[in-house]
Amino acid sequence: MAAPNNARLGRLQTFVRSFGPAWVVMIADVDAASILTAAADGALYGYSLVWFLLLLAVPLFLIQEAAGRIGVATGKGLGELVRENYSRRTALLTSVPMACTDVLSYVAEFTGIAIGFQLLGIEPILSLPVVYVVFLLAGWKRGYATLERILLVMSAVLIISYGGSLLLRGLPPVREYLFFFWSWQPPFLYMCAATAGAVDAFHALLSSFSNG
Length: 212
What we know:
By secondary structure, the chain is an all-alpha fold. It has ten helices and no strands.
């Protein structure tokens, strides 16, 4: 009896060790840009764009999963593999959009951080330098394990708050989820483009260039 129990315990420990990084990767797309864009979508169109979000989840999942397999199999990021297997020109062409996207992503994230602290009464001139220093120290000290634990707790609070808000507000009728809405009007197309930009597979692909 001891051997099967030990085997089950070993599988459980492996799952727990893998769950943290996997959860952080999954929750990474629930960032400031995604939350603000989703809030605007909901305010303007209710649940009638759920179909579009589900559609975007397919390429996002495929690319994230492929990037994870590449990292596990090679121990390298996609950018490094491009440099090793193709010309320097190709590597440069792939790194330029990656760098531009990363810069814009950081601008969006720090903007979201500033908004969040301002809601708590802390001005950006105070909050952003502190957050930036913490960010630099986490990378310099390589305290990823500690940071991961903090993010796990924060993400759990986020999910619980979403669930609590949904329960307090009440579940919408099923027909609202099934309603397929589309328009060729510029405001609607703009919101679709913003939604795709917030959770798009292209961003995931570029991010995978630097993740081993």
